[in-house]
Structures are given as structure tokens and as C-alpha cells.
Prior knowledge:
Distance between the termini: 27 Å
Number of helices: 4
Pfam family, one: GAF_2
Oligomer: single chain
InterPro entries: GAF, GAF-like_dom_sf
Protein name: GAF domain-containing protein
Helix content: 25-40%
Number of strands: 6
Domain GAF: 20-143
Order of helices and strands: HHEEEHEEEH
Amino acid sequence: MAFEDLKKEVxxxxxxxxxxxxxxxxxxxxxxxxxxPYYNWxxxxxxxxxxxxxxxxxxxxxxxxxxxxPFGKGICGQxxxxxxxFVVPDVAxxxxxxxxxxxxxxxxxxPLFKEGRNIGQIDIxxxxxxxxxxxxxxxxxxxxxxxxxxx
Length: 151
């Protein structure tokens, strides 16, 4: 499915006011994972700035032990500090990578901002080496802009 078609699906999920925020986040994860072949794990982490930790709120894919991540640790933790997208073409080449599964080859993390503050992120793992493009980044930034409207 093309990103433009997927935008329609994400918009429809966001507008489902009968669902809780967590249910909508999980549905968005599912839509992304089922529509984009190289999105093997999709999740949303949210920041607790008091404890300097990220907390997994919703995801679709293999279960993970990494439900709480300290700021600065791993790719997600680095994005919590840098406030910038982080595309990792080869996770094996990253010193600060937290391995979630031996099948993961690459990762993209895009921060989620509300009122100018980094409040979380969307995290996507891929079992495909180096699949993420600038188009993925722009699309995921758009997804986060939609998500912030339900938070």
C-alpha cells in the first residue's frame, strides 16, 4: 500500500472516538505493520520526563522485554535526548543498540512532539537491511502529527 493510501487509513483510525487512545495507537501500529512489508515491529513509546524513561504504550509485532527504556540508551533513548529522527540502516553497526530480536536488521525512530516538547516516539524495527527512506521519515512524521491530536 502506498503511503498516501495509508494516510487515509490512519486518519480514519484517529477519528474513531469510540476507541480509547491506546486502542487507536494499537490499530495504527497494526495498519502500518500489515501495509508496509518491511515494518516488522511498530510501537509507540511515551516519555516520563521526571524519571527520564520511555514507556511502551502500544505495539504490534513480537513481544519485547524493552517496555521501559532510559533516556540515552538504545536508539529510542537517544532520540528522547536528541529530538531528531534516527534511521539505522544496520543495527549491528550501532554500539548503543538494544537488541530486541536477532531477526531485526534495521530501525527507524521518529520523535513525537506536542506543543514543542518531545513526548514520545514511533519506533519501527525491520528484518530487512536498510529499507527506510526519506519517504518513510516524512510519512512517520505525518503519523505522529495525527497521533498528537488524540493525546
